[in-house]
Amino acid sequence: AVVTPATPEEVAAVVRVCAALKMPMTPRGAGTGKEGGAIPYTGGVVICLERLRRMELRETEMMAVVGAGVYKEELNKFLAPKGLLFGPDPASNPSIGGMASTGSSGMTTLRYGTTKENVVSLRVVTPQGDLFETRRPVRKSSSGYELTQLYMGSEGTLGIICELIVRVRKQPPLRSGGLLPFANVEAAVATVVAAVHADPPSMLRCELLNADGVEATNAMFNATLPCVPTLFLEMRGTDMEQMRRDFDMVADIATAHGCHREQILFASDGAELDDKWEARRGCSLAARRVRGIKGGDKVLSTDVCVPLRHLSDCVANAEGFCRDLGLKCVICAHIADGNFHCLIPHQHAESERVMDFEEKLIAQALACEGTVSGEHGIGIGKVANSCREHGPVHVAVQHAVKRALDPHNLMNPGKVLPPLPPASGAKL
Fold first, then answer.
1. Phi and psi angles of residue 127, each rounded to the nearest 5 degrees, phi first
2. Upper half-sphere CA count for residue 72 (Cβ side, 13 Å)
3. How do residues 77-131 score in pLDDT, each as one tens digit?
4. pLDDT tens digits along 290-344
5. What is the mean pLDDT of the chain?
6. Which 8-state DSSP code applies to residue 137?
7. Which H, E and C letters describe 398-415, residue by residue?
8. Which of 36, 195, 308, 358 could bond to 380 as cystine, CB 3.0-4.6 Å?
9. Cβ contact 95:73 at 8 Å
């Protein structure tokens, strides 16, 4: 069954009925998640939040009240007449509630941080059907446990996020940017690490497509970029001269790492690069079609994030793993964050090799203190790898929280954590 409540109070009423019937509940936002978090594998009721549409600007506070069903692009369209924006920018167009539930981020983390840093307070419905506010909407508070962050990234397993108070920011009026091509990914990533340390103040986005990624987006979007590893930069600010100096600073670093200066593309009007950014946003779809197979391929989408000191080796090794296994490796990366996605197009007959690749990639990320999920969340697809990352004590603490808040395991069961052990066997 699917229900579509229109207010947080209606969500609470639905949850109370489900709780009384011991009926499993699966919250759903825009359905753009990568890890199956909104799929009701255990049956029960899907609580679709698309009708939670509230948008209210609190301009004095530089905050906005947003219903969980509002899409990212809708919110920014609402804020634009005031010259404001909500900073996090996933490549898709997810709901704001879904962004909070999975802890997503996207292409502007370098400047604005992840969704977790941009949410002030939540209105949440508990598994028992009670509606409450996690925190007062003030600039700072040290009153009690930080429940806002407890629910961020919990993917509907502890309660249902119905409404959010988010930070909004001034939208800088000027845009510029450019493309920096490299002979190999090691040089491109080394450039990014050095640029992050240099900290050019107007750099908003710094994204990477590897050679296979450029090939895929060229074919999908009728572009003609050279099929080599390429950095995509966007600068935002109020002083065009400063923005140009910032771009040139990164270009100098790139040149020192082997980028040919004459091949660097700069656009003083960032709109000139909009088609290139759309191609970057569409790399997941492009990966499905890059091999030209009728009907397209399935695509494994990975999401590791590693410390910057290991980033160059990890990205280069990922390409090498694919090469050794005879697989195509489309990499699109929020590279300045250490977060890169390997998109592996494949058919069923290649599944074993794809699983082998994923195991090598995960093992590498964990060996160098990285995480199995930088922004996609855990859902059902990454439960086992998340447990590998955290270890038994960490998982036991998570189980204790889950059992305390949702003792009957009704909220999105099977997601984020392995099955709850018997209560008597839980040890911390």
1. -60, -15
2. 19
3. 999 999 999 999 998 899 999 999 999 999 999 999 999 999 999 999 999 999 9
4. 999 989 999 999 999 999 999 999 999 999 999 999 999 999 999 999 999 999 9
5. 95
6. S
7. HHHHHHHHCCCCCECCCC
8. 36
9. no
In Å, how far are 264, 291, 299, 344 from 357, measured between CA atoms?
A: 33, 18, 13, 9
Rounded Cα distance between 377 and 155, Å, is: 8
Q: Cβ–Cβ contacts within 10 Å for residue 356, how many?
A: 14
Alpha carbon of 158 to those of 190, 235, 416: distances in Å?
40, 39, 11
Beta-ladder partners of 235? 176, 203
The tokens for 246 are 């910032």
Strand 84-85 versus strand 169-170 pairing type: antiparallel
Quick check: 231 and 315 in contact, CB under 8 A?
no
Question: What does the pLDDT read at residue 426?
Answer: 46
Q: Is the pLDDT of residue 422 over 90?
A: no
Mean pLDDT across the stretch 158-169?
Answer: 98
Q: Is pLDDT at 279 greater than 80 in this prediction?
A: yes
Query: CB under 8 Å to 192, separation ≥6 — which residues?
Result: 206, 208, 231, 311, 335, 336
Task: Give the per-residue pLDDT at 424.
Answer: 52
- Under 8 Å between Cβ of 142 and 228: no
What is the mean pLDDT of the segment spanning 173-180?
A: 96
What strand order describes the sheet that includes 160-167? 55-58, 63-67, 160-167, 119-125, 131-133
> What token pair was written down for 232?
């995509």
Residue that has been written with the tokens 């629910």 in this structure:
151
Closest CA to 207 of 226, 179, 242: 179
Residues 6+ apart with CB under 8 A from 97: 27, 29, 49, 52, 67, 68, 69, 70, 161, 162, 164
Distance between CA 30 and CA 369 in Å, rounded? 32
Residue reference for tokens 């990212």:
72
The strand pair at 45-48 and 2-3 is best described as parallel
